Amino acid sequence: MPSRRILVTGLSTYWGARLAQALEGFEQVETIIGVDATEPRRELERTEFVKVSNQHSLIQRIVRAAEIDTVIDTRLIVNSLGAAPREAHENNVIGTMNILAACTGSDSPVRKFVFKSSTNYYGSEQDDPAFFTEPMRRPHPPRSRIERDVVEADNAVADFADKRPEVTVTVLRCANVLGPDVDTNFTRMFSLPVVPTVLGFDPRLQFVHEDDIVHALEHAALNSIPGVYNVAADGVLALSEAIGLLGKRALPALPPFGTAALLAPLRRLGFRIPDEMLNLLRFGRGVDNRLYKATGFDYGYTSRETVIRLGEHLRLEPVRRGHEEGYHYEREVEEFLRWSPHVRRGRAGDDGVAADREPLGI
Question: What is the pTM of this model?
Answer without folding.
Answer: 0.87
